[in-house]
Amino acid sequence: MARAMWTGAISFGLVNVPVKLYTAARSKDVRFNQLHAPDRARVQMKRFCSAEQVEIPFDEIVKGYEVGPDEYVVITQEELDQLAPAVTRGIEIEEFVDLADIDPVYFEHSYYLVPDKGGSKAYALLRQAMEESGRVALGRVVLRQKQYLIALRSTGKALAMSTLYFPDEVVAPDELEGIPGDDVKASEREVKMAEQLIETLYTDFEPEKYQDEYREQLLALIDEKAAGKTVVSIPAKQPAAAKVTDLMAALEASIAAAKEGSSEEKKPARRRSA
Description:
Elements: E1 6-12, E2 15-23, E3 35-36, E4 41-42, E5 48-49, E6 54-55, E7 63-68, E8 71-75, H1 77-83, E9 90-98, E10 107-115, H2 120-133, E11 135-143, E12 146-155, E13 158-164, H3 188-201, H4 213-226, H5 247-266
Parallel strand pairs: 1-9
Antiparallel strand pairs: 1-2, 2-10, 3-4, 5-6, 7-8, 9-11, 10-13, 11-12, 12-13
Helix pairs in contact: 3-5
């Protein structure tokens, strides 16, 4: 059973909605420990002073910000505490926007909000109003002594909260090298063909169709080795990258292949003879 990681309230005008916060996703990355190969003992990371070449205790460690090569400004914990935002138990809604206006690059982490005691009706009211209006709420919240910009939206019967990157944290496309300029343009026919390919491949989003094949293979390998089986590794063959010599020919071939694939999926299964 999931456990709430934070409790507070959504401030919506003069309405307060008591809520509990849950993580919306769980990372399933396979993590390894570092071992000493000869004896399989865990490798420990120790705090080591590069100048004195000795191990140092934790109470001799301070925080430093590098302002130049080997030049640091030391900041004490007391100074950090003075700058920390006031720890409130509120999600303050400041405005509402259209979800389409938020570029997905701004989204960081996602959570679910669940009504706390006495907040069910106000929670349902806010969720239903946001769903019917098609709007997303923007606000701020303090989690673990850090202030976040957040977006609240209705998803199914729940409210989801996503932390957002601030604008100065997002890399602007203008900073990237190699993006084609206005002088590089596709013909009208090429655009139509590309649109046709997109429509041929269009389908409803079904996330259950996608699996982390690498993780599944890695876990299977771990299970086999843990059971004492001898595993022979066979290098996977990487498909050779196709050379695109004619853009129109490549689009036409892609459309034909996509149509063939979709028609194969729609074919009814053959009956087996008795």
